[in-house]
Every structure is written in structure tokens, then in C-alpha cells.
Amino acid sequence: MFKNYRLREVHVRWAGIAMLSVIMMLLYKEPDEAYIQKYATSFVFTSFFWNGAFMLFMRFRRIYPQIRQTPKRLAITVFWLAILLTFGDPLLCLIFGFKDWQTVLDPAIAFDHLPSNFLATFVVGSIYENVYFFEQWKKSIQLNEALKNQQIRTQFEVLQNQTSPHFLFISLNTLTTLIAEDVNIAIEFTEKLSEVYRYILQNREKEVVKLQDELEFARNYIFLLKIRYPENLNVNFDVEDKYLALSIAPLTIQILLENAIKHNRISKSHPLEIDIYVDGTNSVVVKNNLQKRKVIEKTTKTGLANIKKRYAYFGYDSIKVKTTGDNFLVAIPLLHIKSDTEQLMAPAV
């Protein structure tokens, strides 16, 4: 698709150069000058400026590709276009012998074509920028839709896991036992279970949530797990307050906790240790000691893949996953959010 687009652009560009050369020829042709000679000169100059401008547009698009960077990209592009147009015309005149040094150094003569060059560049540049803007706008809409669809799949998967007969049976069985043993703990268990479902439902349409909210949800989820594994599951949080206002995709930590429990043995002789902290790259790390189950609980095996897909929409090509002889860890980048528009920004570094 990209190749076809570039092919179409090349055709349009050279057709435009040919037509603009005709206009420039008619504007600046001397009465005694041959049409073919003047057209050839106009074609060389127009080709130089159009292709030079095109290279500048493409270069700064690669450096500043995002829509929010448009003002900065345009300012820098205009600056370099001004240099190209101001000094390119006298330089070409010297190279082809149309003017000598004395003429070139006379601003009134050297820059006599400058207004028309700027006007032509403005028209052509406006076309390029409008096409690029609408392409980026269309792409952003497509990415947002893809992210929303992925979010829906994530929420459905988590809800499916949390409302599965197995999970509900364990939760209700645990609650029944707690009511008989300790009413206060039973009440707290019910409240935490309610908070878990409330968080899932409230954030089902959000792209990101504050890390503070995600950690609070993770603590509620861990409380439910600790009732089931009172002495065999240890989860340690070590996150400084300065990171709490940063953001993360919702349910990310919960999915990683669930994966750790599904894929590892948990017993008195093999307690599962999980550490949640922020590393030097401003990524939330969920690390557990590795003690793989021989038989893994039934799972869709899409949890980690789901996280990777969601972060790919944010511009992260890969999520750090590391396995050693003793540990397994996943590092999830924290995100900056523009508070006024709730727009995703660069990675938090």
C-alpha cells in the first residue's frame, strides 16, 4: 500500500513539475527567447525546488510524525524552505551561467524570482500538508477504533475469567467458609470482591488509568487471592509516590498477577513471591519466582499478547519480557498524559 502511494506521488509530482514549468516559462520568457530553451530552464529550476521541498517535507515528517507536532514541524520546514528558495535560485543561475557574481550579489536582480518561487512553494506545500494531515487523522481514527476493540476484548476476557463458574464457585465457597469463621473478614471479602467488579466495569471503555487506581485495584484483587492462599502467596509493592500520577492500560497488573498464579505452583513448600515495583526506565515491573506447573489451569493464553497489542497502539513495539532460571518478569512502560486533553504523550522518562 505504501509502495503504491509513493508510486502515485511520484507520478503526480513530475506531472506537476511539467505543468508548473509551463507557467514559469510564460511568466519569465523574454521576447527574443525560444520557447523550448526557456521551458528547459524552467523545468530544471522547478524540478530542483519541487524535489528539494519534497525531501524537506519527508525528512521532517519522519522526525516529527505526530499530529500534535504539526506546528513545530511546519515552523522548521518553512525555515529550511526559505533557505532553499533564497539561495537556491542564485546558486543555479551561477552554475548554469545565467548570472555572474556581480549580478548575484545585487539583491534586486538576484532575488527577482523569489516572490513567485515562494508562492508556488506555498501552494504545493499546502497540498502536501493537507494530504498528510488527513492521512494522519484517518490513521489516528483507525488506531483509536482498533484500541477500543482491543479494550473491549480485554474487558470481556477479564470478565469471562472473573465470572467463570470455577472462579465464582471458589469465591462463594470462600465467602461461605468466612461467614462461619469470621463475619468481619467475610464482610471485607465481599467489599473487596465488589470493588474488583466495580473497577472492571467502570474502566471498561478507558484507554488508560492512573497507576494509583490500578495499584489499588491490584491490592483488592490480591486480598481475594490471599484468602485462598493465606501463607503461600506473597505480593510486595515498592512504588514511590512520584509515579502514582502516571498512567497505565487498565487491568494490566491484574492480568500479569493472574498469569503468575496460573503458570506457577503455590504451596507451603513452594510459596509464590511476586514483586511489583518501578524500575530505572520508569516501567512497572511484575516479577515472580519461577516454579512452573506441570499442568496449567485452563486459560485463553492471550493475556500477555493482549497487553502487547494494546501498547502497540500507544506506539510501543515491544513489552519487556525476561525469563531467568529463577524468575519471570514483565516490564510495562508508564505513560504521560496531557492533563488538559487527556492525550497520550511520550514515554515517561
Descriptive overview:
The chain has 2 domains: 2-140, no CATH class; 163-347, Heat Shock Protein 90, CATH 3.30.565. The protein has helices at residues 2-28, 35-63, 70-95, 101-104, 107-110, 114-162, 165-181, 183-202, 211-228, 252-263, 303-313; strands spanning 209-210, 233-238, 247-248, 272-278, 283-289, 320-323, 327-333, 335-338, 343-347. A hairpin with a 4-residue loop joins β8 and β9 (343-347). The model is unreliable at 162-166, 339-343 and 345-349 (pLDDT under 50). It has 11 helices and 9 strands. The longest helix is centred in the middle third of the chain and has 49 residues, at 114-162. The chain is of the alpha+beta class and 349 residues long.
Summarize the structure.
The protein has 349 residues and is an alpha+beta fold.
